[in-house]
Amino acid sequence: MPLRKSCLYKNWRIMLIEKIIQELQNIPEEKLSEIYELIHDFRLRLNPENRQTRTPGLLISNPFNSV
Description:
- The structure is a single chain.
- The chain has two helices and no strands.
- The chain has about 70 residues and is mostly helical.
- The protein has a domain at about 1-40.
- The radius of gyration is 16 Å and the shape is flat.
- The chain has helices at about 1-25, 30-45.
């Protein structure tokens, strides 16, 4: 029985991640850095013991798109 619960959890988690990705795809490119900051800060607040400080302004809005 625990194996079935584990599979259901994994399926639910994958579906939720896919829904998040779908939402992210509808956000304008110039706003993605703001979303990244929001997610990053949220994740860090979940575990304050591992909090690493970062220097504001060093994030490139789209590092995969060469100019």
